[in-house]
Amino acid sequence: MKKFFYALRAVLLLALALILSLTLSSCSAGNADADKTDAVSPTPDAAISPSPAGDAADESEPDDATHVIATPEATEAIAQEPEETQNLAPYDGIVEHLFFHTPIVYTEQAFDGDAQEEGFDQYMVTVSEYKKILQNLYDKGYILVNMNDVWNEYTDENGKPYMKRETLMIPEGKKPLILSYDDISYYEYMMDNGFPYRLIIGRDGELWSYGKDPQGNAVISQDVDCVTILDKFIKEHPDFSLGGAKGLICLTGYNGILGYRTQTDSKDSSKEFEERRQNEIARVRPIVKRLKETGWYFASHSWGHINLNTASFTKMKNDADKWMDEVGSLIGPTKLMVYPFGSRLDGDDVQKTGDAFKYYHSLGFRVFASVGIESFSRVKKDISAVICDRMHADGLTLRNERERYMKFYDAAEVWDDARPEKYGRKW
Ligand SMILES: [Zn+2]
After folding, report:
1. What is the DSSP track for 119-150?
2. Mean per-residue pLDDT over the chain, rounded
3. pLDDT at residue 56 greater than cutoff 60
4. With pLDDT > 90 as the criterion, what percentage of the chain qualifies?
5. d(Cα 273, Cα 266) in Å, to the nearest integer?
6. How many CB atoms lie within 10 A of CB 219?
7. Which of 5, 219, 297, 323 has the highest local Cβ count within 10 Å?
8. Among 412, 378, 405, 410, which Cα is nearest to 391's?
């Protein structure tokens, strides 16, 4: 009898295994990939059916995306609410601010000795470093806050608007932190250089990233993009986020947004181009919507990633207007402006309030962020605005600023050995 039971169980297990393998192979990568939580390897082995030769995979991507189905993990996470925020305490100290670019997924492509290698090394972290940095920030007691909540505009008794730094209410012992992400455009120059191609929405309604591995296979994953990695991290650690706050996405417009080519082209006014553009706009709208629903928020990073320090007033104004038309129209109003290259309007927004600054102010921008050696901020007295600096989590500071960044993470601990040795490091 016992023997029969074991035999029956073996048959049942075999049948189950068969069904499972059939199910998995008929689904897309996204499903298989979703099981690989916390893969620290920067090289996702999570991919997928080989795509047709050439660039045809681009065309097949929407199909891939619709094959993503809800995983038990994703369903659970939706039901999971942030823990009850007990013992909130007032906080008036420094709100630290760190920013990233899109992390490198395939280091063998980014660090391949070509002309772009050094830039990628300086300005990006790898996926492995990014995941370790998030863990370090969490372990050190940081909690993400929405930058929009840190400063708000009020009106004084004379009807004059002014910006005020809010007293934050955060869980006792935690330290508030803003994370921002520059140039989440998946620029054309990044294609085939080790980065994802775009954000997409799976059949489960969640955000995923789409790209190709170095062998050209389509990869749909939540483990390789800064957005979905943070989403997953906060699902696993809800107390890393105050009120569901995620990160600030800083967008240019010249290559579209979020991997969709929504930009105009002054050299192409054809009907075909405009149709393609409108199609891209239709595709990106649900991505923007889902990002906003899940705690992400947006800033301008100028349309053309221009140097606002040196741009003429006319150039600055045309660029800002174009951003409002092509990007602002898709993401909605924002009071946040993040300077490309960290270059301040009018060359200086600390000591003066110039015409360019006033123009941006007239478009509704109130908080202007540059880059610095500390999370500096100042409420301006002569105009209702805030200027501030962000610190840069990237290869430059990993190599050269280990001590300064120790309050966030230890460069030696997060360091990815795939980085080229030739650029040196100061530790
Ligand atoms: Zn930038």
Report:
1. HHHHH--BHHHHHHHHHHHHHTTEEE--HHHH
2. 86
3. no
4. 80
5. 11
6. 26
7. 219
8. 405
306 Cα to the center of ligand 1, angstroms: 9
CATH, residue 166: 3.20.20.370
Question: What total of structural domains would you count in the chain?
Answer: 1
For 340, the domain range is 2-423
How do strand 207-212 and strand 336-338 relate by DSSP bridges?
A: unpaired
Spacing, Cα 30 to ligand 1 middle (Å):
29
* Token couple for 387: 């200027």
Residue 158 Cα to ligand 1 midpoint, Å, equals 38
Would the pTM of this model clear 0.70, i.e. be above it? Answer: yes
pLDDT at 12: 46
> What mean pLDDT comes out for the span 156-165?
97
Contacts of 314 (CB under 8 A, 6+ apart): none
Question: Residue 280 C-alpha to ligand 1 middle, in angstroms?
Answer: 22
Residue 9: band (very low, low, confident or very high) from pLDDT cuts 50, 70, 90: low
Q: How many residues does the chain have?
A: 427
Rounded to whole angstroms, how far apart are CA atoms 128 and 145? 24
- Return the pLDDT at 84: 53
CA 165 to chain centre: 25
Ligand 1: centre distance to CA 173 (Å): 33
Tell me the torsion sign for CA atoms 370, 165, 336, 96.
positive
How does pLDDT run across 181-195, given as a tens digit for each residue? 999 999 999 999 999
Lowest mean pLDDT across 19-23, 114-118, 255-259, 361-365: 19-23
d(CA 225, CA 103): 7
Interval between CA 305 and ligand 1 midpoint (Å) = 6
- C-alpha 386/C-alpha 164 separation (Å) is 9
